[in-house]
Amino acid sequence: MIEITPHLHISEADIDLQAIRAQGSGGQNVNKVSSAIHLRFDINASSLPDEVKARLLETTDSRLTSEGVMVIKAQRFRTQEQNKEDAIERLVEWIAERLKQDKPRKATRVSKAVKARRKDAKQAQSQRKQQRQKIRY
Fold first, then answer.
1. Assigned domain for 134 exists
2. CB of 33 within 8 A of CB of 21?
3. Tens-place pLDDT, residues 55-90
């Protein structure tokens, strides 16, 4: 079981890991070794609660397919094991980030004192500018 939060876990069977060849420079090693990892996580088929699934599916992320499959490619490290850990860690972070609830905004109003200070400041600025003008006789 992979822990996302203390109360939320996903089964390792829900995650499909596939080794692929990494892109980029790396000499002969990059052509011989499949060190990159494609992680596929089917949200609809997972063991997550329905509310969590709905919340994950409503996000707009380019890594999320229209079928509800999250695809993460990990190729940051040279070894397959490190890339597996990185991919799982990134999936856990993604799910945990989507579960955070924003605090509801409390409506506030500008107080009368602040309005009065703003009005006084505007009048003072107006006075200053009028005093800079040429005097017309």
1. no
2. yes
3. 777 777 777 777 778 888 887 777 778 888 888 888
Question: Which parts of the chain sit beneath pLDDT 70?
Answer: 6, 24-33
pLDDT of residue 32: 65
Containing domain of residue 33, as a range?
A: 2-99
16 within domain boundaries? yes
In the chain, the number of structural domains is 1
pTM for the predicted model, two decimal places: 0.61
Q: Do residues 17 and 87 touch, judged by C-beta distance below 8 A?
A: yes
Give alpha helix (H) positions in the chain.
Answer: 28-32, 50-57, 80-99, 112-132
Q: Is residue 68 part of a domain?
A: yes
Q: Enumerate the β-bridge partners of residue 20.
A: 36
DSSP string of 10-48?
Answer: E-GGGEEEEEEPPPS--THHHHH---EEEEEEESTTSSS
What is the Cα–Cα distance from 127 to 137, expressed in whole angstroms?
19
Q: The CATH number of the domain where 52 resides is what? A: 3.30.160.20
- Which residue reads 């994950």 in tokens? 56
